[in-house]
Amino acid sequence: xxxxxxxxxxxxxxxxxxxLQKNFVDLHGPLDAHEASVAADRCYxxxxxxxxxxxxxxIDIPLFIRQIATNTPKAAAKxxxxxxxxxxMCARVCPTETLCEEACVxxxxxxxxxxxxxxxxxxxxxxxxxxxQPYTRAASTGKKVAVVGAGPAGLSCAHRLAMYGHxxxxxxxxxxxxxxxxxxxxxxxxxxxFANNEVNWLLSIGGIDIEQxxxxxxxxxxxxxxxxxxxxxxxxxxxxxxxxxxxxxxLNHVTDAVEFIADVRQSKDYTDIAVGRNVVxxxxxxxxxxxxxxxxxxxxxxxxxxxxxxxxxxxxSRWEQDLATAKxxxxxxxxxxxxxxxxxxxxSITFEYTTTTADGLQGTGETITLTADQILMAVGQTLxxxxxxxxxxxxxxxxxxxxxxxxxxIWAGGDCANGGDDLTVTAVAEGRDAAEDIHKHxxxx
Length: 445
What we know:
Mean pLDDT: 95
Number of domains: 3
Number of helices: 17
CATH class of the largest domain: Alpha Beta
Strand order of the largest sheet: 3-2-1-4-17
Number of strands: 17
Shape: globular
CATH superfamily of the largest domain: FAD/NAD(P)-binding domain
Radius of gyration: 23 Å
Helix content: 25-40%
Low-confidence stretches: 1-5
Structural class: alpha/beta
Strand content: 15-25%
Oligomer: single chain
CATH topology of the largest domain: FAD/NAD(P)-binding domain
């Protein structure tokens, strides 16, 4: 990575455009046909494959890898898309190191799993790059379904319903569809406008309309939607962010990491994204790591990730943590923020060291102050408001195993529902499964 010039303060264009483009290259470049063939040959094609069980969408992984090995990558893509219509994005962003690849027999035997994620990308890219849509829409059933939210759960649900012949309208609050895939994933994990291209490919099945700039509770009434449609699916994600209740949290350059990531994702060449020289990220999840790495790639000289518990308790996988340290970020566990100092803008942040006891997390009384001209908060996201009386469970929409909410005719899935775990692949599975139940409901009524 190019050395950053010693520009003071928080500023855009800390690095030149050429250096930024070099820094934000594809994290895992695509395999070519020969590389894919070699990688596929490492698979044991297990009969009772643990990788399938480890995949939230239960893709038949040995089958699609065998199809690659026999030089039928488009058939492999169809195997993937049957279970995960957003398999292209999931191949790029799934934490395969803690899912399918961790369960791989090769990982247990040799410490080096089959490259399932990259093989999945090879197959899905092969099919999508020629514009093929492997699904034919059934004859129209005359049933109408509203999907609120054009993120992974909503898109997955909409595609499956459209395939069955139902007419789907997606309402989304943002300017672009895609949800988390468009706005919430590190730019180096999904390059070349892939999220938008994938949405356009998905919509090519027909029968799906999208209306952007339509937020539930503001532009849309759930009661009105219910009257117009035969069923409703909510995939609204988590649109709120937790705040720090400490002195100085309102100072300039103390911002949400989610907002920072979204700005980077929507930038054309990254020269318009302001970053400090000394950046502190608060949090221990994937958002914290993504924000930290991107701050470093934008030219921040010192990036520290502070987490209140031990490093083994971080939600970000060890692989992601290692990526952050490899990019020059420093992870500081057992630190909880106490105060942020500065005049109009932040200049430092003070933490208290913590320890875990039988009574839970406790402060030790010892403190440390870190120089910071930018602080990015990644301390969790929340569901803003209760959608028109739907029952909640621990702050998320309460759903049963089929995605049904407490209100008849309304389903939910993805991060906004109590089964979600903030992964694209899980959201896809929940949207797909809810669509199956919605289809059954519509056929029975």
